[in-house]
Amino acid sequence: MSDFKELADRYIAAWNEPDADVRRAAIGGLWADDGTYTDPLASVVGHDAIAAVVAGARERFPGYMFRLLGPVEGHHGIGRFAWELVPGAGGESVVEGSDVAVVGDDGRIKGVYGFLDKVPAA
């Protein structure tokens, strides 16, 4: 897949989707069946586990939205992008990070490797 911007937009939309069934379907369309998601707080495999991580983030930050920060870059089946988590009504981000996605020949994500650059105090 050469259009990493479109992939990143779909990825962010999945994290922002409020309906769990719609979100789970979006995850199924984005990730390979054995796709992975790894960040400092989680390391999971498969659509159900990825959906659970996303649901956990949404539960921890109700009313917040993810959005892309800066350009999306990609080459050789690997893309990277930065993102932030902001209040839905506007305001400063509470979390910022960047993700690297490895994409298979079918255009679906094989793995996402996330890094957290800004996190709220515990």
The assigned CATH architecture is: Roll
What portion of the residues fall into strands of 2 or more residues? 35-45%
Using the alpha-carbon principal axes, give the shape.
globular
List low-confidence stretches.
none
Count of helical stretches: 3
Topology:
Layout: H1 4-16, H2 20-30, E1 31-39, E2 42-45, H3 47-60, E3 64-75, E4 78-87, E5 95-103, E6 109-118
Parallel strand pairs: 1-6
Antiparallel strand pairs: 1-2, 3-4, 4-5, 5-6
Helix pairs in contact: 1-2, 2-3
GO molecular function: isomerase activity
Organism: Phytohabitans suffuscus
Keywords: Isomerase
Fold and architecture overview:
The chain is of the alpha+beta class. 31% of the residues lie in helices and 44% in strands. The chain has a six-stranded mixed sheet. Strand 4 and strand 5 form a beta hairpin. Helix 1 runs antiparallel to helix 2 and helix 2 crosses helix 3 (47-60). 21% of the residues are buried. GO terms for molecular function: isomerase activity. InterPro entries: NTF2-like_dom_sf (IPR032710), SnoaL-like (IPR037401). This is Isomerase.
Characteristics of this structure?
3 helices; 31% helix; 44% strand; six-stranded mixed beta sheet; 6 strands; 122 residues; Nuclear Transport Factor 2, Chain: A; alpha+beta; globular
Q: Summary?
A:
With about 120 residues, the chain is an alpha+beta fold. It has 3 helices and 6 strands. A hairpin with a 2-residue loop joins strand 1 (about 30-40) and strand 2.
